[in-house]
Task: structure prediction
Amino acid sequence: MLEKEEKRKQKKRSMKRVLLLLNSVLLALGTSGGPLVMRLYFIHGGNRIWLSSFLETAAFPLIFIPLTISHFHPTSHHSPKPNLVSIKLPLFLASAVIGILTGLDDYLYACGIARLPVSTSSLIQASHLAFTAIFAFLLVRHRFTVYSVNAVVLLTVAAVVLALRSGGDRPPGESTRQYVIGFVMILAAAALYGLVLPLMELVYKRSKQRVTYSLVMEIQLVMCFFATLFCTLGMLINNDFKVISREAKDYELGESKYYVVLVGSAIMWQFFFLGAIGVIFCSSSLFSGIIIAAFLPVTEVLGVIVYKENFEAEKGVALVLSLWGFVSYFYGEIKQDRENNKNGCPETELPQSLSPNA
Result:
């Protein structure tokens, strides 16, 4: 009997490792592929900002796939079968508000990507970690450590280094004003993203529901729906739906490839969402953040290789400072977690809903 129970536990651990690996791959693809495909749309003649922001969450119906699987196949045979819809009204409303903020964040990010090389925008977006640390301190009383302060300083300096080089890698035909607007938009997106994560943590802490994988996906579904709705209203006001067919005909890569790029962008961003949810469930939000951070230099290098973007000394310095900041932050988090475990009071790792703009 004991041997059978041990085999069952081992099989469950193996399945969880496979699921973690699969979701890590999805998250890595979304982290690097999302910005690259979005930039591909803009550099070949696309110019609809609201359309691009809409695509960041438009593939949210894909979440129904793992949600359905989770409903009919609970992670534990001993756990009760989840309800078809388990999210309650207060949590639904909070998720809707955060979804609208996510839609705004998507718009700001698309504005920046339209004007900046991928290698530059990725480095600026790295500053979200600094904003996250600040807002986490204000909203959920996450205390600062020497490591988190060091990370905030390093990431701020990295952004300043890039700002001093403003326009040095400006795309051909783009004015300095447009480049600066892109820089500010990406920075604003990073700041808003830094606010969304602690807000989600605050919602989870104050929720009276038990946080399960199914509930996390329901929350993500609600957020993505309202983010998409927000961007859809922007498209209607900006008449984007009326010009999509005309833009497709004038697209440099051809009409059919235009639609392939749009669909590819939506899928890549949804890979990010599904991967982030899966990694958080199988491991932790910290590990999810580490994967995103690890693929920052990958995204930058791919931008340089695929789109022949310039890589000046300032970008190299900013990259080193950003990676240093990431390592400092996560080392401090891991060290703090070990101290908590040693003292016998481990902190519960709360699932965090991640924006695609990491």
In short: The chain has one domain: 16-64+85-334. DSSP finds 14 helices and no strands in the chain. The CA atoms of residues 32 and 299 lie 5 Å apart.
